[in-house]
Each structure stands twice: as C-alpha cells, then as structure tokens.
Amino acid sequence: MKLQISDSIQDRVRDGQIRDEDAVRFSRFVDRCNQELMTHSVITDNKYCQWFAKGEVSRENVRHFVQQFSVFSNLFLIAQLMKVINSGSLEGMRASKEILANELGVIFNKPGSSLGEVQDTDRDGDPDIVSVEGSVDGGTFRFRAAHFEWLLKIGEKLDLGFNDMGKRRNGTPATIFFCDQLAAIYGNEDPNIAEGASFAVENWAAAGFWKQLVAGLDAFKKREQKDLPLAFFTWHDRIEEQHAGHVMDELEEVFFEGDDFDEDKFIQGGRDMLDGTEAFWVGLNEQRIAAVAAV
Length: 295
Fold this sequence. Notes:
By secondary structure, the protein is mostly helical.
C-alpha cells in the first residue's frame, strides 16, 4: 500500500484555499507517512493472516482466534469511548460516536438503502440488523446488532460460552497488551498522538487482513462447520473497503485544518499503535506454532 495525494490538493492551491508552500509541505509529510508507517510489517507482512488465509486452520486454531478477537473487540469499546471523550472538536467527537454507537448496536441509517435479497444470512448477515452505509443519527438500536453479539454467535458454534469471550481474563498477554495500547494511544488526550494512531489503525484495517480472515474462515466453514456465521467478518471487510477511500481525505483534514499539528507526534502515535497491533498477531502466530510443536 502506498498513499497517493489527491488531485484536490492542487485544485485547492489554484482556488487559493491553501498556499503552495503548504501543499509542498503536505507532500513531504505524505512521503514520510509512506516511509515510516505504511512500510510497517503488520501492514506489509502479517504472517499469521497470511497463514490463516491458506485455509489450513483447525477447529482449535479458529476457537483460539475467535476468543482472542472477541477480547480485542469488546475492550476496543474502552479505547473508542476514550477517543470520544478526548476529541478535539465536535465534529471529531461525532465521528468517534458513530463508531462507538455502531459497535454497541445502533444500525447505520440511510433512507432507501438496502442489502437487497440476502441468500446466506450466515455470511452476509441479517438484513434487519446489518447496514454498511449511513449514520447512527436516526438509526435503530438493537441488542442483536452489537458486534460482540455477532461474535457470540460464532463462539456458540465453537463451544465458547458468554463467559469464555470478551473478558480481559480471557485474553493472552499479547492480546491484553494490544488492548491497553489502544486505550493509551488511540484514546490519547493529545490529538496529534490519537490522530496518528487512528490513521495507522485505518490503514492496517484497509490493508486486506479482513479478506485473509474471511478466506480462512470460509475454508474452515466448508470443511468442518457448515453453520458457522461469518457476517461479523464479511461486514467489516465491506465497511473497510469504504473507509479506505476516505483515508487521505482524513489526513488532509488533520494536516490543513487541525490546530497545532505536530508531525512528529502524529508519526510516533502511528508507529506505536502499529507496534501494539502487531503484538496481537505475533501472539496468535506464536501460539499456533507452539500448539503444533507440542503435538
């Protein structure tokens, strides 16, 4: 992945909205992001996800993965709430609330939108609780729409109960480290650090790991668990495809409109967040290798 500057920058220079020297400075900053963030190995070389995508996962592999992912997903709520509280503007707070409310079960509302005829609700989700477009403003809350409840349905098929999932006590040290880093960096009260972490998370999420997880789970489902619901993963894959197109828009907004923007803090927040994210996947990879060696 490589970040590309949009044509709108030159349009804004011509319109006098931004100065030519600021556009040049932004170009240099994007180059720095490409060199210092986009080359991170969790984006370019996630060995666990590469292995997972091959479809060789065992039931125990999937069970452990789902349990750890449920811990991350549930504890992410803490980091997202901190991001809401520490937002530097009303617009930023609302954007963070969109994510938090949707995670908790508020369905995106877009009048006239529809998933169309769904053939496989296990894969594509229940049309009554799934939407990838719109806003939580005016959306409907449903318990079943909470992302953690989607994961619980997967857990049921893998003999994981409610108290086996989503709790801090269920996490490995690597998973807990990742969750704590999210709260500390992604939810940081310094907007430069938090924005850098958010930008890094968006690029990690858009790098294709969701597709790798879906590929591995699809193979496992066909081979061993025909009724395994995958809507949690396929929905996130679809939503991240949409987010990927807005990554540069968000970077431009932070750079040109943010007060007291600090490039160094932004990059540091991004690097630290990617390091924390990688720890989660390295932990999963080490566990699955150790399990094989112990047989």
